[in-house]
Each structure stands twice: as structure tokens, then as C-alpha cells.
Amino acid sequence: VQVNNESAVHELEQTVPHNSLSVIICNDGDNIQDKYNEAVALAAGGATNRADLIVMSGLYSGITGTGNNYVSIIGVGNRDHIEIDGIILDQNYGLITNVKSNIQITSNYADIKGVKSGSNFSMLENYGDIIDCSATTFLSYVTNYGLIEGCESRGLNRGFGGSIGSSNHGTIKNCTAAGDLSFGQQKLLELA
């Protein structure tokens, strides 16, 4: 496509997703780890030290981030068609929303909304809001200082801090768990 005037270029830029100084677009077929790394580099050098990774519908390999991660991962389209084979982060400071992916985060300081996990949604510490998420194993061991709302543990036992050592200093509301020993009902072993 050849565009010969500025107004046509501006109009095209408004309708076609493209990268910017704080946004990286990941299309089906792209290497999502490479795109995530680009977003991390943008966040490190940007004025706000934040960047967004916009993920279009598709099947993607996983994302791994070490250190402090100031990148939001935002799915665009039908969540069930935005499949990421795992998101593993150390310190998360970016929104994660509208994706289908297993989640493994050491410390979460941001919002996570509308994530459907095939099997595992785990983190050691939560200081953010986790809203409308689900997994077969959901936060079985967690220290929660944030809000967990409208979430579902679909299968295995010990959802929502049911493992020994978990604690809740925040709020868990309107959530459901299919398994036993959920919501902090930790079963202590009896000594003979």
C-alpha cells in the first residue's frame, strides 16, 4: 500500500495496530518472548517506566520475566483464543488481563483480571487486585494483602490459601472452590 499524503497516513495509523514508544503489539505467529523483551526494554527507558504488550488472538509460547516487570500483558479479542503457554514472572507491576494462560508469579503488585488458567494460577505474595480469574489449582499457597474477587478454583483441593503457611491479610470475596480444604482451612497433621 502506498500512501501519499499525511492525513491518509494519520488515518491509517489510527486503525492499524502498531508499536509506539510504550506499546508493543504481538500478533499470532510472533515470538511472544521477544515481544515481551522489547516491552521490558521500552519500560526501562521510558518516561513512566511502563509499557504495554498488546496480545492479539493466537497461540503463543510462554513468557518468562525476571526482576521487576513493569509490562502490562493485555489480550485483545476473545480470551479463549489468546492462549499463552505460561506466564512466569518474578516481581510483577503490570496489569495482566484477558488471556488464557497458567500464571506463576513470585510477588504481584498489580491487577490481574479475566485470566483463565488451564491448570495452575500461583503466586507467593499478592498486593494487587485479582478479579474474575479461574484455574484448576488456584492460589493454594499465598500470602494475600490485596483483593481477590469473583475467582474460581475449579478442581483440586486447597484453593485460595488452603495450604499450610498461607495467610490472608486482604479480602477474598465472591469466590468459589470445588476442592476441599480451601479458603485457609488448613489441616494440621496430628502427632501420635
Summarize the structure.
With 192 residues, the protein is mostly beta strands.
Summarize the structure in words.
The chain is mostly beta strands and about 190 residues long. Helix content is about 10%, strand content about 40%. It contains two helices and 19 strands. The chain has helices at about 5-15, 30-45, and strands at about 25, 50-55, 60, 65-70, 70-75, 80-90, 95, 100-110, 110-115, 120-125, 130, 135, 135-140, 145, 145-150, 150-155, 165-170, 170-175, 175. The protein has an eight-stranded parallel sheet with strand order 1-2-5-7-9-11-15-18, covered by helices on one side. Strands 3, 4, 6, 8, 10, 13, 14 and 17 form an eight-stranded parallel sheet that branches. A three-stranded parallel sheet has the order 12-16-19, with no helix packed on it. The chain is globular and about 45 Å long. The protein starts with 5 loop residues before the first helix and ends in a 15-residue tail after the last strand. Mean pLDDT is about 85; it is low at about 185-190.
